[in-house]
Amino acid sequence: MRAIALAADITVGEHPRFELFGLGMNRDTVLSTVVAGGILIALGLIMRAQITDGVPGKLQLTFESLVSYIHDLVEESMGVRVAPFVVPLATTLFAFILIANMVEVVPTQEKLISPTSDINLTAAMAVFVVGWVHLTGIRKKGLIGYAGSFTGAPRWLIPFRGLEEVAKPLSLALRLFGNLFAGGLMIQLIALLPTFVLWAPTVVWKLFDMFIGGIQALIFSLLTVVYFSHAVHEEAH
Description:
This protein has helices at 2-8, 27-50, 58-77, 86-102, 119-141, 143-151, 158-190, 195-231, 233-236, and strands at residues 17-20, 23-26. By secondary structure, it is mainly alpha-helical. A two-stranded antiparallel ribbon has the order 1-2. The longest helix is centred in the C-terminal third of the chain and has 37 residues, at 195-231. 27% of the residues are buried.
């Protein structure tokens, strides 16, 4: 009964707030996002300082492997020359989301969260990616040509094509948010267990949660490549 009563006290989707230029913001999400971005930038600067043409270090090898994987994926799907910026974009998205999904393990005075468990961040990233996709399609094919890819025959599919475009940012945002939010909620529920058994499920779930975080980062970056490929597919051919 006590566990049920405590479970009822768990708050869902509530964040400490602050105002900036009259806009309300979630303090923990902003802080965790800044920390995740700072870690990514720091790793990039460290790798740049240690980069070598000889035997690469572990950090350089990790980045090179990731960039090579994304490069090959973009080349196979649409050709790197068609949209070369997709390689650094997808690579950065994967690295940032991966770090953001795991940033809550960083020891700080104020408890960090996985900022991707806040729909505000995942929605912003999804709108950014899909908006860039449409702008790229218009730049490559022209406004009329790009619009024609949605209004061509058969005409009865036009409403469904419109729904598909609306679903893209929703699926990107909600898939990432849902998985990370559920992981954070499970941690709160596990915390209700007796102290003497708490460590075991916490360790097991955190390892599983980190694995899921890596998978979701990969899916987000892969879908980014796929969306750009669809937007410029005629250019690729």
